[in-house]
Design a protein that fits this description.
alpha+beta; Gyrase A, domain 2; six-stranded antiparallel beta barrel; five-stranded antiparallel sheet; about 15% helix; about 35% strand
Amino acid sequence: MPSPHFLEGACRIDDWGVIRARGADAAKFLQGQLTNDVLTLGPGRARLAGFCSAKGRLQASFVVWKAADDEFLLACSASVLAPTLKRLSMFVLRAQCKLSDASAELRLWGLAGTTATAGLGDVAAWEKHEHDGATWIRLPDAEGTPRVLFAAPPGIEPASAASTSLPLATWRWLEVRSGIVTIEAATVDRFVPQMVNFELVGGVDFQKGCYPGQEVVARSQYRGTTKRRTFLFEGETVAGPGQDVFLAGAEGEPVGTVANAAASPAGGGSALVELRLAALGGGTLRLGSGDGPALHRAALPYPVPVDAEATA
């Protein structure tokens, strides 16, 4: 593992963007579209949420927070922002809610290590604070390293930005090691939320009511039909999102899909792989083909329930 010295600093997250939802019906509109509860989202909290198709497949994932009584902000991968904004806008109809791309008005930074805690303190994950014109959101730790999402207009930067620079590649690696999947262009429409452990990391509220795909997501939960889950793997090769994973020496269909991946500061790479549970005990997993680079399972920072029958 990299030393803590390399997991310290601030970086611009230029591969993410922000959607703004503003209007008297903004909360009600988002409540009917996202997998998590927006109506109860207070000013001191942020939440993870997904946007699904009618078939329950994730089109995007967000960090959502309330900016004002009639305004919400949704941070997501820039690679899915434009199509997601277009699709969400189709459902606004007569609701008093205007959706827009706020990426140019609000820049995102990732803070890690003492750089994160110095500005926010030792608070719980998903707590949100605002001061000096910026929003600070405490994200779940990764590799024991505190992380913060910092959002502010251009011209407002973290105090440590100039003195302690964190490579974006290292931030991406920490994102992977956190075990929280971000939907990217290569993985749109590939996963039901449970396939990427979304309900395990607080991204789904099963009491909130209807949203696109809600029946599929609920059925997967209550009927125990989840036969695929996401696990953390390491390898000598850096994988790519959407890349297939196979059992060693096996021919035919892949048994998994890379959801997110990043190069490790110590060499090689880490990947979150959505995997058929039956493949867990089937031998070594390989990237790209049955004789591709080997993948070795690592520990996620949270437990994943695995039905013994599903792995048989």
